[in-house]
Amino acid sequence: TYHLPPPSPPQYELTISDDGQAFEFSGRVDFGLTEALRGLVASNPKIKRITLESKGGYIAEARGVVTVLRSNEIATHVHGYCASACALIFAGGAMRSLSSEGQIGFHGYALGHGQNFGMIDPEVEMQRDLAIYRAQSVDEQFVQRLATLPKTPMWYPDHAKLRAVGLVTLP
């Protein structure tokens, strides 16, 4: 009989800030994050802010996190670095703020040459995520730019641009 190995522990931390005013997420956008956040929000309904620090991870999990943020009107904040799937989570915030040192990184969708993930179509997946940016009132020209980005290198728009297009909504 074949036994599956136990699942590896999540590669993220999800906690409450020392002052009790915010959720704090750092690490990989990994399986289980949506459920973990849903549970933390349910037991701490007065907290309406999450700080993000991540290089990204699983986009499907990021979409789940966005649903939790939106249904609970939770604001997002980046003090340091938030890229790839984390940028989608950031966009899902009711209000969105960025520290003076903060960076938000974006890249395009692509499968490597010869890669195939069965029924997954990168174009369809990208459109699902672009719909989230649109629903959050991000400028359409910016959304169209996201649709044309290459997989590499990561693009880091400056703060003025992020505010002008409505991605950052608080000073």
Question: Can you tell me about this structure?
Answer:
This protein has 171 residues and is α/β, with parallel strands linked by helices. The chain is built from 6 helices and 6 strands. Strands 1, 2, 3, 4, 5 and 6 form a 6-stranded mixed beta sheet that branches. Helix 1 packs parallel to helix 2 and helix 4 (122-135) runs antiparallel to helix 5. 26% of the residues are buried. The mean pLDDT is 93.
Keywords:
171 residues; alpha/beta; 6 strands; globular
> Any idea what the radius of gyration is?
16 Å
Number of strands: 6
Low-confidence stretches: none
- Overall average residue pLDDT: 93
What's the story with the biggest beta sheet? Answer: 6 strands, mixed
Order of SSEs: EEHEHEHEEHHH
Distance between the termini: 59 Å
Fraction of residues in helix: 25-40%
Based on Cα principal axes, name the global outline. Answer: globular
Secondary structure class reads alpha/beta
Structure annotation, total helices: 6
Proportion of residues in β-strands: 15-25%
